[in-house]
Amino acid sequence: MAEFPFELVSPEKLVFSGQVEHVVVPGADGEFGVMAGHAPVISTLKPGRLTIFAAGQPARHLFVRGGFAEARPDGLTVLAELAIPLEELDAARLAQEIQDAEEDVADATVEAVRLTAQERLERLREFQAALIQSGGFGGSHSGH
């Protein structure tokens, strides 16, 4: 399978940079896979699991939230507000993310801000439910 350059960047650091065969991105309009030669696409991210497939290595799974992905025929760049390897994400941290989102909804005084916060809260709850259904937290996830 052809490889292509992929970078995952968060405000704190360069999370991943290297050659990959396939990346599954949680786009706002649904998950999408990127392989070498992908048509140009820009998508916002929804909170969810980003999966990296590199030759000869186990799949890497990360929780991402906020930001966007830019796929090009010559590579993929994902800029995420938050990017945490799933093995580092625990139930308490996700619960805190949900609590923060609930507070954002409660504190919003502008309807558009409240609706955006409500969407984020719903996506976090969906992600939490998906993690629980797939066997919990940590690196035990496989597939895409």
TrEMBL record:
One of its GO terms (cellular component) is plasma membrane. InterPro entries: ATP_synth_F1_dsu/esu, ATP_synth_F1_dsu/esu_N, ATPsynth_dsu/esu_N. Produces ATP from ADP in the presence of a proton gradient across the membrane. It comes from Blastochloris tepida. This is ATP synthase epsilon chain. Residues 84-118 form a coiled coil. GO terms for molecular function: ATP binding; proton-transporting ATP synthase activity, rotational mechanism. It is found in: Cell membrane; Endomembrane system. It is a peripheral membrane protein. PANTHER family: ATP SYNTHASE DELTA/EPSILON CHAIN, ATP SYNTHASE EPSILON CHAIN, CHLOROPLASTIC. HAMAP family: ATP_synth_epsil_bac. F-type ATPases have 2 components, CF(1) - the catalytic core - and CF(0) - the membrane proton channel. CF(1) has five subunits: alpha(3), beta(3), gamma(1), delta(1), epsilon(1). CF(0) has three main subunits: a, b and c. Residues 5-82 form the ATP synthase F1 complex delta/epsilon subunit N-terminal domain. Keywords: ATP synthesis, Cell membrane, CF(1), Coiled coil, Hydrogen ion transport, Ion transport, Membrane, Transport. Belongs to the ATPase epsilon chain family.
